[in-house]
Design brief:
single chain, alpha+beta, Annexin V, domain 1, Immunoglobulin-like, 2 domains, four-stranded antiparallel sheet, 19% helix
């Protein structure tokens, strides 16, 4: 994660989702300048990029201009405008326990229709939410079980990733590398075993992820070092939507994928062989 984003997320006013106050938001609407949770991010994405351009704080690449814009806005300032006058009759989302319909209606009213926006003659009436206890917990801890369980409601199936092997990976030690993989889908991360002194590792390991039908699979490859920070060896990103095809059937696909440089994506640094399987929840 960019250091500038880390600092912004440490601000108390950005420590909760701008829409439902769920602690530790890890997503952002970059054209509104607010930090949001994974569930609200799903609603924002459904609005379309012309209304809300959503980025992951940890997985996506951010421009300096986007970070500067977030720095100039933030949850406190934007909510002072967008939630200036919320009628008492409006059901306000509160954390992961909020159902999708309530969350959707509120976010559309707030950003698309701007029903609560600060205007001349409107009496200030910010939304009333219960006070959270312990919401200042570490921003670097994994999401709580309650958040993960609630997020499952939004998921459409399971993605199984069989990490088979790699070939022609780059040298990070003197003559070889000790590669391992970090696999991420949404908020879920898994880590493979470390393969010693090889540029052509054989893993044959299986990983499962709950999937919302939109999140990509990201695989980052590292060289393990005992005495220093692990070196980055490359990245693979996979758009998984081709596995759905709209028929709701289980589908598998085996393939070799290029490993590229983290910043210079046209620079290939080896290949990974994967088998991807989509299993609908129903």
């Amino acid at each position: 994660m960019d250091q500038g984003l880390k600092e912004l997320l440490e601000y108390p006013e950005n420590s909760q989702c701008a829409d439902c106050t769920e602690p530790n938001p890890t997503w952002a609407s970059t054209n509104w300048g607010v930090f949001i949770c994974v569930q609200c991010a799903g609603v924002h994405r459904s609005l379309g990029v012309e209304h809300s351009f959503v980025l992951s704080c940890s997985l996506d690449n951010w421009s300096k201009e986007q970070i500067d814009f977030m720095k100039a806005r933030g949850n406190k300032e934007m909510n002072a405008l967008l939630e200036h006058s919320v009628p008492k009759t409006i059901e306000v989302p509160f954390g992961s326990e909020t159902d999708r319909d309530t969350r959707d209606k509120y976010i559309r009213a707030k950003y698309i229709e701007q029903l609560f926006y600060k205007k001349e003659g409107r009496t200030p009436n910010p939304p009333k939410r219960m006070k959270r206890i312990g919401s200042s917990s570490s921003r670097h801890s994994p999401p709580s079980p309650s958040l993960r369980d609630a997020a499952m409601i939004e998921y459409i199936g399971i993605i199984e990733v069989e990490l088979i092997e790699g070939k022609n990976l780059i040298i990070k030690d003197i003559i070889s590398s000790d590669p391992y993989c970090k696999l991420t889908v949404g908020l879920q991360s898994r880590k493979s075993t470390i393969k010693k002194k090889t540029l052509n590792p054989h893993y044959n390991e299986m990983f499962s992820f709950s999937w919302d039908g939109k999140d990509k699979l990201w695989i980052e490859i590292y060289d393990h070092d005992d005495l220093s920070k692990d070196d980055h060896m490359g990245i693979v990103d996979v758009d998984l939507e081709f596995l759905k095809k709209g028929d709701g059937e289980e589908r598998s696909h085996e393939c070799w994928l290029p490993v590229t440089h983290r910043k210079h994506r046209d620079k290939q640094q080896g290949e990974l062989k994967l088998k991807l399987t989509y299993r609908p929840i129903n």
